[in-house]
Amino acid sequence: MNMMTPWDLNGWEFAALAFAALLVGFSKTAVSGANTVSLAIFAAVLPARASTGILLPILIAGDVLAVLTYRRHAHWPTLWRLFPAVAAGVVAGTLFLVWADDGIVRISIGVILLLMAGVTVWRRRTAAADREPDGVTTRAGRAKARSYGVLGGFTTMVANAGGPVMSMYLLSAGFRKLGFLGTSAFFFLIVNTSKLPFSAGLGLIDADSLLLDAALVLFVVPGALLGRWAVDRINQRLFERLVIAATVVGGVQLLVP
């Protein structure tokens, strides 16, 4: 598959992708799920399927910065419970990409994101406000982890849109702000890195796409620094509302033709 290089883009197109890369950095260290806007920008400027391969290394760069920033706040019991289900979702997503066209992918992911946002808002209104993350040790908690894990693996493989699904899971599990960011940072670094051979095998990553990534990844760093500065100034309630709002916006964007 022929990918686009920096020289194939006009100034406005490259500026849009650079802004999207900056937003990736911001979302990884401040408001997880906000990078659905980046996903929409990449899909608008580049061919939709190709955009997922070009965006993946940029997301991994953001994941590395997030891990370096929040590595002490990860909740590993939650991560270990999620990974088997996520692996199944990634395999399902890979098979889905073999035959699904761009329109089916966009509609499927958009519907999933909006459903997850609605379920999370409902659950947070009916559940105790201060639940601890170790609630995933219950039978219901394990079932929820598996469900969200499969959906997260599926959506992250087909459209790099697993962030909102995992955001909804971590919010529904009662994670506070720093635990949320630390756990999601390690989760996506491991998951996105594991996706590289699948994406390369599907022809979504090649030398041209990596050349464009090299030009864009520089914009991830200032975005991450801006996010780290902003997160200390966002209280927990506002943080949760921003995450849910970003998820809804991302879902709507994917459904709009």
Automatic annotation (TrEMBL):
It holds the Pfam family TauE. It is a multi-pass membrane protein. The keyword Isomerase does not apply. Keywords: Cell membrane, Membrane, Transmembrane, Transmembrane helix, Transport. The chain crosses the membrane at residues 49-70, 82-99, 105-122, 210-231, 238-256. It is found in: Cell membrane. Belongs to the 4-toluene sulfonate uptake permease (TSUP) (TC 2.A.102) family. This is Probable membrane transporter protein. It comes from Streptomyces edwardsiae.
